[in-house]
Specification:
The chain has 2 domains: 31 residues; 157 residues, no CATH class. It starts with 14 loop residues before the first helix and ends with a strand. It is mainly beta and 214 residues long. The chain is 9% helix and 42% strand. It contains 1 helix and 11 strands; from the N terminus they run H-E-E-E-E-E-E-E-E-E-E-E. The N terminus is likely disordered. The strands form 2 sheets. Strands 1-2-4-5-6-7-8-11 form an 8-stranded antiparallel barrel.
Amino acid sequence: MIFVLVSQGAIRYPRAMKRPIVSLLAVFAVATAHAGSFGGPPPFKNGSPLTSGTDGTYQAVASGTNVTGLFSWHMSGGAQTPEQGNNSWIFFVDGEILSGQTSAVVSRGKVVGILDSTTSSGVPTTGNGTITLPLVFIIPGNTGSGQFTGKIDLNSPIAYFSGQGNLSGTAPRVDQIVFLRDAAVPVTIVPITIPGSTLGNIAFKFRGSRVSTQ
């Protein structure tokens, strides 16, 4: 703690003492500004001293042996948003294109994520939001899923991050195809067997940053 004595008369210091006092005052100003005083940053938000906290859109590029890919995710209010367009991944592995949805968490200098496989082509709808019949679902057989972990610099506005992960083929499974020909016709369900993926365990490294705080 630094004490400043104030008197009615001017305080005169020897010239040899002026430089240490100036240095102490400079250190004190920097320390208090970092703590949030004198125009410093607000209280920490999700481990980040930035006013935007961890919110924003994150993108990364991945590379490894016979693999090139990219993945992204979006956060708002310190949590990942549900929009699929901003939370996705796509990898090129041994001549095949694999894709899916990304789930990620950013906290206290670390980033952890899951690469989930795509299971269907989605439900087609018209302009007014009604379902278009007949419905056709595409269930890919050679799919993959994976995970990634890394470190992230939450003191930087671009939140640079890097790390490593792996991608593996999905195991064989039994799924169902649902046919909806008309609203008045009963639903037809056909069980099908989805073969396992030929994709082995693929390791990769990644580098990325926050590309937007919106």
